[in-house]
Write a structure and sequence with these properties.
The complex is a heterodimer of chains A (196) and B (289).
Chain A lengths: L1 H13 L10 H6 L4 H33 L5 H23 L1 H7 L2 H5 L3 H12 L4 H31 L9 H15 L5 H6 L1
Helix pairs in contact in A: 1-8, 3-4, 3-7, 3-8, 4-5, 4-7, 7-8, 8-9
Chain B lengths: L1 H38 L6 H9 L13 H9 L12 H12 L9 E5 L20 H5 L17 H5 L5 E4 L2 E4 L9 H5 L5 E5 L5 E3 L7 H7 L9 H5 L5 E3 L4 E3 L9 H5 L5 E3 L16
Antiparallel strand pairs in B: 1-4, 2-3, 5-8, 6-7
Helix pairs in contact in B: 2-3
Classes of the chains: A mainly alpha (196), B alpha+beta (289).
Chain lengths: 196, 289
């Protein structure tokens, strides 16, 4: 249990996928304009992350690894994630149209979100068990949500600030993102002390 | 010879097995996708698609729905009024009605109107504002630099949201070109002073161009053309179209008969008539905005 908590919180805070591992930067910059789109995107990311980890882990452990084709993991994982997102979209469209509407364009966009592939591969590299992989994926998704929400707040302040012409738009956004990222380094070592 | 063939075979098998694994997984996933797509098939409503193609796609929400898609949905499911979209105008409303077999909508064209005449000539500045040049930022600093706390700040937040280039700043206040305005209402939502209203597009419309709720004396001190709440127009109107909202006269455009009685009695010229008199000769180009 304690181990699970450590994995969960270090994925959220210490090894935040956006701010520490720099995965999923594109949606991070793209949809953090306002809280509503940030909400839609991060919900979709959490769902796909957990599901993708749930599928990629067994396929690697029971199929690729015993046959000695571990090196195929990247291409196989990409296949699985893309197909998974496609299937989820079709099912949602039919059975829960309101959720499908809410997630909107973000669901297909996630297919190319490197955070999903990143989590799937990291699960294998870290040698996590199946349950640990799921917890890690959940933590990664929550961390993504946290980063997106915090940054949506920062950006709403940026909109009202008087920014020099040269820095307007993406440049100041990147500067702000790096500052938020630095602030997350304050969590280093915190989790192990808390639970360890 | 046979050694080369052996090496070739082993290399072939080294390549073929990964290809088989990758291809096999891809094939299985493809089949699963096809099956789910068949199983969870959602029929596409062709009527909905053709409605969407007709709507302008401005997604402004002036129809009362959350966007063009939501309005198209409502229409497809039996919303009886095809004339809700001010951006598309009467022509599009007719086309929609025809497509859906609805009654011809009675479409009243509307336009946005700035309810302020506090030009630099008519009002003063309380302080020099040097902050971020947007209305919403300026309004946050002691309600803005204008002497009138209700007046137009003139930084052009409305210009920034107008998709039709219908707004310009003339003499320090926002002015709307009613010939370009589609009454989408984006500026209405944006104005921090709530000075913009949607009114019927009547070329002879009478409006009290003021939103000031101060007592008359205070209003008059800070703006030459503000409504001072003298109630003369209220008493002069024979049709009950004018009501007093505290010290502010308000004309109901639905009841106004455009007789012009109120205009002649207004001592401060806060009441004006006509939309065309308000159209700036030249809307400043985009570089200026």
């Amino acid at each position: 249990m304690k181990e699970m908590l450590i994995i969960l919180f270090s994925a959220i805070l210490v090894n935040n996928f956006v701010l520490s591992r720099f995965l999923g930067i594109c949606p991070f910059l793209g949809v953090s304009n306002n809280l509503k789109t940030a909400m839609g995107m991060s919900t979709a990311v959490i769902a796909v992350l957990v599901l993708a980890s749930g599928f990629t882990w067994p396929i690697y452990t029971f199929l690729l690894e015993p046959l000695g084709f571990g090196y195929l993991q990247t291409i196989v994982f990409i296949l699985i994630i893309a197909a998974l997102v496609q299937i989820i979209e079709t099912i949602l469209k039919k059975s829960i149209p309101s959720l499908y509407q809410a997630l909107g364009i973000y669901l297909p966009l996630i297919t190319t979100n490197c955070a999903i592939l990143g989590v799937a591969i990291l699960n294998i590299d870290e040698g996590y068990t199946f349950l640990q992989s799921l917890v890690n994926a959940l933590g990664a998704g929550l961390g993504f949500m946290l980063a997106l929400f915090l940054f949506a707040g920062v950006r709403s302040r940026l909109d009202k600030a008087d920014i020099p012409q040269t820095l307007k738009g993406l440049p100041i956004t990147l500067v702000a993102a790096s500052l938020v990222s630095i602030s997350f380094f304050g969590f280093k070592g915190l989790i192990e002390r808390l639970f360890g | 010879m046979s050694a080369i063939a052996l090496v070739f075979l082993s290399v072939l098998s080294d390549i073929m097995i990964p290809i088989a694994i990758g291809g096999g997984i891809a094939l299985i996933l493809g089949v699963v996708i096809v099956i789910t797509a068949k199983f969870f098939d959602v029929p596409v409503d062709e009527k909905l698609e053709s409605i969407k193609a007709l709507l302008p796609g401005a997604n402004c929400g002036a129809c009362g729905f959350s966007g063009c898609e939501a309005y198209a949905d409502a229409l497809a499911q039996g919303e009886p009024n095809a004339g809700r979209c001010p951006v598309g105008g009467p022509d599009m409303a007719e086309e929609l009605a025809e497509l859906l077999g609805l009654a011809k909508p009675d479409f009243i064209p509307e336009t946005a109107q700035v309810f302020c005449q506090g030009t630099t000539e008519n009002t003063n500045k309380r302080y020099e504002y040097a902050g971020t040049p947007t209305c919403i930022a300026a309004a946050g600093l002691f309600t803005g630099p204008n002497s009138c706390a209700y007046g137009c700040l003139g930084f052009g937040d409305c210009i920034a949201v107008c998709q039709f280039g219908a707004i310009g700043i003339v003499d320090g206040i926002a002015v709307i070109d009613s010939s370009k305005c589609t009454a989408c209402g984006m500026c209405v939502k944006t104005c921090p002073k709530e000075l913009i209203r949607i009114i019927p597009k009547h070329l002879n419309a009478y409006t009290v161009r003021c939103r000031n709720k101060w007592p008359g004396i205070q209003t008059h001190k800070h703006c030459k053309v503000g409504c001072i709440g003298c109630q003369r127009c209220f008493k002069a109107c024979k049709y009950g179209a004018i009501t007093m909202d505290g010290p502010l006269a308000v004309i109901d455009p639905d009841q106004c008969t455009h007789c012009g009685e109120c205009l002649s009695v207004c001592p401060t010229k806060a009441i004006r008539n006509g939309l065309t008199g308000n159209v700036p000769e030249q809307i400043p180009s985009e570089e200026a905005g």
